[in-house]
């Protein structure tokens, strides 16, 4: 069973099971990141497939692909972050800093700039 | 740990279950949005035209995935006395879903994103 294997893996990592409330909060944070990624994918669907935009093909693809790339980065990072936080809590270490909020902020800002460019200088 | 709370005062397990449901619903909505026809039948719509049968694949795949995750959550929820205690630890089940369910959800969102980008580039 993969679950028992991963449990054992974390057992060997040492430390003790953290308070269940912290584990659940970590899980909810993970789910919130997944919802963020889904929102970005929804934006990509709108730009690439749904909404008729009179932008140049360049800005359309740039915005759509940037949104998708951001979403994929988040989906790769979110489970890793969950495991890292879980491990840190088991060992009573400070929570690891994550680059994810910074990446998301910068990425969304760049997408906003590209949208402006697409709207006013198509 | 021997403490066995009768009820989680913060309803943390329940909130996490709701969070799962919200996430799965958003996943289904995004897939339906992806399969929807474009708003106008302009030039963009013509080249994005996909065989309706092909559109069923992501829909059915996502429905199966969401159903599977839902069943997994339900089973665990029921097995832990509605999120009150896990037999192994005595405290409420944490996490609510197994780690593989989280990895599966992440992977499916990544696949969806890649599919959205790929059909736009190739279509």
From TrEMBL, chain B:
The keyword Transmembrane helix applies. Residues 8-80 form the DUF202 domain. It is found in: Endomembrane system. The keyword Transmembrane helix applies. Keywords: Membrane, Transmembrane, Transmembrane helix. GO terms for cellular component: endomembrane system. Pfam families: DUF202. The chain crosses the membrane at residues 20-36, 56-73, 100-122. It is a multi-pass membrane protein. This is Uncharacterized membrane protein YidH (DUF202 family). It comes from Spinactinospora alkalitolerans.
């Amino acid at each position: 069973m993969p679950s028992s294997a991963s449990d054992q893996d974390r057992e060997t990592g040492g430390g003790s099971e953290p308070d269940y409330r912290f584990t659940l909060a970590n899980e909810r944070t993970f789910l919130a990141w997944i919802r963020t990624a889904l929102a970005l994918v929804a934006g990509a669907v709108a730009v690439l497939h749904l909404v008729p935009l009179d932008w140049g093909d360049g800005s359309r693809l740039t915005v759509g692909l940037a949104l998708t790339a951001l979403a994929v980065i988040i989906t790769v990072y979110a489970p890793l972050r969950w495991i890292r936080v879980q491990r840190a809590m088991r060992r009573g270490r400070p929570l690891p800093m994550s680059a994810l909020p910074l990446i998301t902020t910068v990425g969304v800002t760049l997408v906003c700039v590209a949208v402006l460019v697409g709207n006013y200088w198509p | 740990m021997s403490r066995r709370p009768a009820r989680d005062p913060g309803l943390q397990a329940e909130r996490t279950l709701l969070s799962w449901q919200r996430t799965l619903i958003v996943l289904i909505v995004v897939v339906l949005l992806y399969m929807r026809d474009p708003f106008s039948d302009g030039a963009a719509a013509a080249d994005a035209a996909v065989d309706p049968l092909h559109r069923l694949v992501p829909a059915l795949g996502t429905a199966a995935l969401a159903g599977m995750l839902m069943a997994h959550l339900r089973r665990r929820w029921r097995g832990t006395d509605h999120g009150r205690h896990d037999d192994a630890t005595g405290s409420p089940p944490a996490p609510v879903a197994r780690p593989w369910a989280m990895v599966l959800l992440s992977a499916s969102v990544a696949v969806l994103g890649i599919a959205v980008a790929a059909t736009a580039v190739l279509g």
